[in-house]
């Protein structure tokens, strides 16, 4: 029986010096990541991989929650333990991605809408029974010539708000994720402008849907220039733009903001997180909810081979620990060298 409340789940997810492991890659995404390393994406390999991640010794010391994909929440380890139970035993709160990916937004060239509201109420009830205590829905906003449009931002904000309201109805904590994509050659100033506008629209939609802001988390990216601009701003510049954007658009009643990594390098993401988290006196707690920036070194070390499990777990453990230190603002670059496998 679950005795958790939204408040206890949020307290657990935002525990000091911890963050969230996003391991909720959909079938096409995990297939792409595996393929780059020559790993076949079949049920057995996906289970072996996620099991190795979640079994990493001491993971719960720096990971507070893990976001699962539909297939994973139903899987058992090779020893027969349901994945959510394995996580709970590590002191990690199980969560679930409930969106069903993106599709073209009709009549809006190059823009996307996230799908998955059909049957969502029923799916949420099932996930709750399977042990999920929080949920996630990702919307994507692309920057380019003439985009994002207000139409795209409004459509996605509306879907995020309905998802959040339904998740709260089902007794789970929604992680509301509008991601501003890094693709393109835009400046950091343009990213800040778009992120500020999009976050304001999302919080307007959430209020209209009577979402309890105290019982949700925001997940979004750091404010960064487009990948193709080839600009590499220093962590202080990223921190300044990111925090200015949040102060202008995220209500103080939101308990926490968790960062996606969005394609940044693993070390770069940790450095920037560390600088952002040194800021004092913010109304929200800040932490990480990284996918690639936590997993990439581990997946590369694993390569689909049983003999590499220990090396992969060591790589994940190191990234988790260092990001845990970054949340406290006490990460230092020299710590990267402590373990050669990262
Ligand atoms: P990345 O950190 O790889 O961007 O993934 C986080 C996530 O959950 C995206 O929805």
In short:
This protein has 342 residues and is an alpha/beta fold. Helices cover 44% and strands 15% of the residues.
Report what the structure shows.
The protein has 342 residues and is of the alpha/beta class. It has one domain: Aldolase class I (TIM Barrel, Alpha-Beta Barrel). It is 44% helix and 15% strand. The chain is built from 12 helices and 10 strands. It has helices at residues 6-13, 27-36, 43-54, 70-73, 83-89, 120-129, 150-169, 188-208, 235-249, 266-277, 292-302, 309-327, and strands spanning 19-22, 63-68, 93-97, 102-104, 112-114, 134-141, 173-180, 217-220, 256-259, 285-290. It has an 8-stranded parallel barrel, surrounded by 7 helices. Strand 8, helix 9 and strand 9 form a beta-alpha-beta unit. It is globular. The termini are far apart. The mean pLDDT is 97. The site of 1,3-dihydroxyacetonephosphate has 10 residues, from helix 11.
